[in-house]
UniProtKB/TrEMBL annotation:
Membrane-spanning ranges: none
Any one cellular-component term (Gene Ontology): plasma membrane
Signal sequence segment: none
MF terms in GO: ABC-type xenobiotic transporter activity; ATP binding; ATP hydrolysis activity
Keywords, ordered alphabetically: Antibiotic resistance, ATP-binding, Cell membrane, Membrane, Nucleotide-binding, Translocase, Transport
Protein name in UniProt: ABC-type xenobiotic transporter
Superkingdom classification of source: Bacteria
GO term, biological process aspect, one: response to antibiotic
Gene3D superfamilies given in the database record: P-loop containing nucleotide triphosphate hydrolases
Family to which the UniProt record says this protein belongs: Belongs to the ABC transporter superfamily. Drug exporter-1 (DrugE1) (TC 3.A.1.105) family.
Enzyme class: translocase
Major localization class: membrane
Length: 301
């Protein structure tokens, strides 16, 4: 069931069309990614979903509610991560959790939440004294303290070290596993590839692709590449004629064959049939990074 429905969403800032006719559905219980270059319109889109911005056109429904007209209802079902600047530097973790819990009719048990997010021993620590990772975990806790069915996380892991980023990924998976739908805005393709069930790739205010991460990767020209040094000279035409192969080239003394998963088996079978072996064999898969670079046009001017 679609818990978020966005239809023909448009939003301009003066002459600038930040969002230009976006439509997508987010299914209940999934992690849905919003990806795209700087200035693509990602934050504007999620701000319209959160009810923080009034769209110029199109419609948004969150659990059936209009985020602008039914602001209170949407606030109860949707938890948004706070920007760092929205918290007082002197507030303690405990005070922040208590304060935000008091704003909701059916808040979560904030002590249990602090425990779950690894903040139990930081309750008396002031916000300004928390590390980047701890601040991020607090912002997730505050987004969850109202017991929402949906949580919006915008650029959550920017600025975190690789370990803190991985811990945050585990938390996001736990949140999804507890039944919460996650709308995740990210610049990190590895993050999107690991976490998202589906993702929309936005460029210049429009959706240019919407699919599972592997579906998006499948759209790139790269696919699977197999490279090797043959044990004896080999006519590349034989490789190019294999059914799944898209290109063959010589690179630094190696033969590089692009194709699909099946190409690996086809190339090795051909070599075996010719009595040749493949030295320094390497197989590389295209990633969401490759798909992103293939499909988007670069930063907004
Ligand atoms: N309040 C505003 N006033 C004027 N222009 C704005 C405003 N907010 C955003 N924009 C412009 O609208 C476009 C989309 O911005 P938005 O913040 O939605 O993009 P984004 O994809 O979230 O970018 P980033 O990845 O850099 O955060 C950009 O060109 C941006 O400069």
């Amino acid at each position: 069931m679609a818990i978020i429905e966005v239809r023909g969403l448009r939003k301009a800032y003066g002459e600038k069309r930040a969002v230009d006719g976006l439509s997508f559905d987010v299914q209940e219980g999934e992690i849905f990614g919003i990806l795209g270059p700087n200035g693509a319109g990602k934050t504007t889109t999620v701000e319209c979903v959160e009810g923080l911005r009034r769209p110029d056109g199109g419609s948004v429904r969150v659990a059936g509610y209009d985020p602008v007209a039914d602001r209170d209802a949407v606030t109860r079902v949707l938890g948004a991560q706070l920007q760092e600047s929205e918290l007082q530097p002197k507030i303690t973790v405990r005070e922040a959790l208590e304060l935000y819990a008091a704003c909701y009719p059916n808040p979560a048990d904030w002590r249990a939440l602090a425990e779950r997010l690894g903040l139990a021993d930081k309750l008396r620590t002031r916000f300004a004294k928390l590390s980047g990772g701890q601040k991020q975990r607090l912002s997730i806790a505050l987004a969850l303290v109202g017991n929402p069915g949906i949580v919006v996380l915008d650029e959550l892991t920017t600025g975190l070290d690789p370990r803190a980023r991985r811990e945050t990924w585990r938390l996001i998976q736990d949140i999804r596993d507890s039944g919460v739908t996650v709308l995740l805005v990210t610049h990190f393709m590895e993050e999107a590839q690991r976490l998202c069930d589906r993702a929309a790739l936005i460029d210049k205010g429009r959706i240019i692709a919407l699919d599972t991460p592997s579906g998006l990767i499948g759209r790139t020209a790269g696919g699977t590449a197999i490279s090797f040094v043959p044990s004896a000279p080999l006519e590349t035409r034989l490789l190019a004629d294999l059914p799944s192969v898209t290109s063959v080239r010589h690179e630094d003394g190696r033969i590089v064959v692009n194709g699909t998963d099946e190409t690996v088996h086809a190339v090795l079978s051909l070599l075996a049939g010719l009595g040749l072996s493949a030295h320094q064999l390497r197989v590389t898969e295209a990633t969401l990074d490759d798909a992103y670079l293939d499909l988007t046009t670069g930063p907004d001017a």
